[in-house]
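for the recovery benchmark. tokens below, seq after
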């Protein structure tokens, strides 16, 4: 419990200024009723400290007026009306400078109820933690003495975080010696433990540590809530993450871009882009609004790539200017990955001709327009560090002497992005039959590699990672060139033939009727470049491949050869090599849309017509699409374990191999066929062996 501080008398100021406080939600005021102990203490404190308790007055017009003072910082008419709830005032006059508002009601009972709510809010403010109470009374001396800070103090609701990770300032710790130093240091230590447990996916330990904060009577900070929320996200517990977020808001703390990024990351990893977009919209609806940074934008775009949501990705990319952000290399790569799947070569080419992918002329780079002079107080400190993302929209001065160093530092990253984007363009052009465009794109990849050879490595990438990425791209360039060469000799390439063996399972597929399933599967292929004229033939083919809602492999492959299945196929290197080595039919099942599309590309470029691509969650796909006793062999290569680094306490909902999956594999396997699981984690393999033994005993 939070203890009410001892009252102390001090001289009443002649003209007390209204304090500035963060806006508190209505629920805080409702928590303490007018007859509660906190309300009585609030009245006594008000009599001693000076501010007069608001009352009800009758105006000349016959209305009942309530004076609300002092108002929290940032109070607006919208916020006051939200505070009053179902009470409808006849008039509302807000004086932000004086920190008060006069609200008039036609009914005396409404005025009385408004006054009771306001007294409850004052009670909550009086019994608030010391930091918030110190801001409430500006005449009170600070908790600790020390030199004045040069940087402005962050608002209490976002203390310990900044609006951008580039502007991060640790405001959570206090100097030793203050009255609340012990409590603050204890809160900081517990918050760090929660963050450590979150990184290890030890959700239960993180929750217990957060409960210790509450048990000790400490007020959790935004950083504590954010660490607990991140623990839920890392363990795949999105209902728990959403509940933690609501509790944080109910405690009167505002969300910020760091908290929103953690919550949005969880929804994206769960494949719920609609909920992730809702987090972004809620940020913008706050008063004042919280604008996203590039890290949040890239998190959302990465989620769009996982599920193949081009519409949301384009919407976010188009709003970067509105948020005063400039596109970076990661933005472009994520968007281009989706454009390539749709075979939109012109859109990709347009991005290559714009910053940040376009080669910047030295003269243009040195003449960055700004709206400020070169006086010392207006110099942009982020530009000096090479981290300003606002460009000409930045109101501070950009020193041109920094430009050349910035270009030299950014050039390796730009060339790496150009190589990736050009390769995506080559993929799209090759699959859509645009040979000249494909050849130009391949030349662009090779030119970017040659230009980057003598430059230092790109930021955030080791030399080994950069070399490995370049080797992979060179192999893909060779595969595309071999594909183009084969087209000169053999029959014309028909991409629809390969799309006819791709099944992108949408959400809610299990609830659809058999006839609706064929239409839904054909519609999903539009995200992979299926043209409108070919949609009806594909839908008819799917009708032949599905019998009572389940796949008929003889119709899918056109042969009676045995069918083998790889769960978690990744980008398809292994399954493509197996399909090329024998005549067996192979099914590659992958959760992520971008990886599943990579399997399709490999099959198309190598003319592997014995590969079928299925995209969706493994257990649900087997349950609703695959018939009984039809698979000859199941392979799972290096599945993700539910724990990290051998930590027994770690927990995660993201692992694929579960008892339910074993039950489904047992159902679909032919008699005396087998499952092969490869892993380099010995403890995980032992746990899977125990799980399989238990499931087999229950099923046999």
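predicted aa per position
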């Amino acid at each position: 419990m939070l203890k009410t501080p001892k009252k102390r008398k001090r001289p009443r100021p002649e003209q007390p200024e209204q304090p500035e406080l963060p806006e508190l939600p209505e629920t805080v005021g409702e928590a303490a009723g007018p007859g509660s102990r906190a309300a009585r203490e609030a009245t006594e404190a008000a009599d001693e400290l000076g501010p007069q308790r608001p009352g009800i007055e009758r105006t000349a017009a016959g209305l009942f007026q309530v004076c609300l003072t002092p108002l929290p910082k940032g109070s607006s008419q919208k916020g006051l009306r939200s505070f009053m709830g179902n009470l409808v005032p006849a008039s509302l006059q807000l004086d932000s400078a004086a920190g008060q508002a006069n609200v008039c009601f036609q009914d005396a009972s409404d005025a009385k109820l408004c006054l009771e709510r306001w007294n409850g809010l004052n009670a909550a403010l009086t019994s608030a933690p010391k930091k918030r109470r110190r801001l409430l009374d500006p005449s009170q001396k600070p908790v600790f003495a020390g030199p004045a800070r040069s940087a402005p103090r962050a608002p209490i609701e976002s203390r310990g975080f900044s609006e951008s990770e580039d502007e991060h300032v640790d405001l959570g710790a206090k100097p030793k010696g203050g009255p609340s130093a012990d409590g603050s240091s204890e809160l900081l230590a517990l918050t760090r433990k929660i963050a450590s447990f979150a990184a290890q996916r030890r959700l239960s330990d993180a929750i217990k540590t957060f409960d210790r904060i509450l048990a000790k009577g400490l007020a959790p900070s935004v950083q504590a809530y954010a660490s607990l929320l991140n623990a839920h996200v890392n363990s795949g517990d999105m209902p728990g993450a959403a509940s933690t977020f609501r509790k944080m808001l109910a405690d009167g703390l505002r969300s910020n871009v760091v908290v929103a990024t953690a919550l949005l990351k969880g929804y994206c990893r769960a494949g719920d882009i609609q909920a992730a977009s809702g987090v972004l919209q809620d940020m913008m609806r706050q008063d004042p609004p919280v604008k996203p940074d590039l890290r949040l934008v890239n998190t959302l775009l990465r989620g769009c790539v996982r599920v193949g949501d081009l519409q949301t990705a384009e919407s976010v990319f188009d709003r970067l200017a509105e948020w005063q952000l400039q596109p970076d290399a990661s933005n472009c790569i994520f968007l281009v990955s989706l454009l390539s799947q749709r075979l939109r070569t012109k859109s990709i080419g347009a991005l290559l001709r714009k910053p940040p992918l376009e080669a910047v002329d030295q003269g243009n780079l040195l003449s960055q327009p700004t709206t400020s002079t070169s006086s010392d107080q207006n110099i942009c400190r982020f530009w000096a560090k090479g981290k300003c993302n606002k460009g000409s929209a930045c109101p501070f001065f950009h020193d041109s002497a920094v430009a050349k160093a910035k270009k030299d530092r950014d050039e390796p990253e730009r060339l790496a992005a150009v190589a990736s984007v050009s390769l995506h363009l080559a993929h799209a052009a090759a699959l859509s039959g645009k040979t000249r465009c494909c050849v130009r794109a391949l030349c662009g990849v090779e030119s970017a590699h040659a230009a980057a050879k003598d430059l230092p490595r790109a930021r955030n990438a080791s030399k080994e990672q950069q070399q490995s990425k370049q080797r992979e791209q060179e192999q893909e360039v060779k595969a595309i060139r071999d594909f183009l060469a084969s087209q000169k000799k053999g029959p014309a390439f028909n991409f629809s033939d390969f799309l006819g063996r791709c099944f992108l399972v949408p959400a809610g597929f299990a609830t659809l009727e058999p006839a609706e399933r064929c239409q839904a599967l054909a519609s999903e292929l539009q995200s992979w470049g299926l043209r409108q004229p070919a949609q009806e033939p594909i839908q008819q083919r799917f009708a032949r491949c599905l019998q009572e809602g389940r796949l008929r492999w003889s119709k899918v492959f056109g042969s009676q050869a045995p069918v083998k299945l790889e769960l978690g196929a990744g980008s398809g290197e292994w399954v493509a090599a197996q399909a090329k080595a024998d005549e067996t039919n192979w099914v590659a099942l992958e959760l992520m849309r971008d990886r599943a599309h990579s399997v399709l590309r490999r099959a198309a470029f190598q003319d592997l017509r014995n590969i079928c691509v299925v995209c969706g969650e493994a257990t649900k796909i087997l349950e609703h699409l695959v018939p009984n006793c039809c698979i000859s062999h199941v392979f799972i290569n290096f599945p993700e374990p539910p724990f990290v680094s051998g930590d027994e306490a770690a927990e995660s909902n993201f692992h694929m191999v579960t008892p339910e999956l074993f039950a489904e594999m047992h159902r679909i396997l032919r008699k005396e066929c087998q499952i092969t699981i490869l892993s380099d984690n010995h403890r995980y393999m032992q746990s899977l062996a125990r799980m399989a033994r238990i499931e087999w005993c229950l099923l046999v």
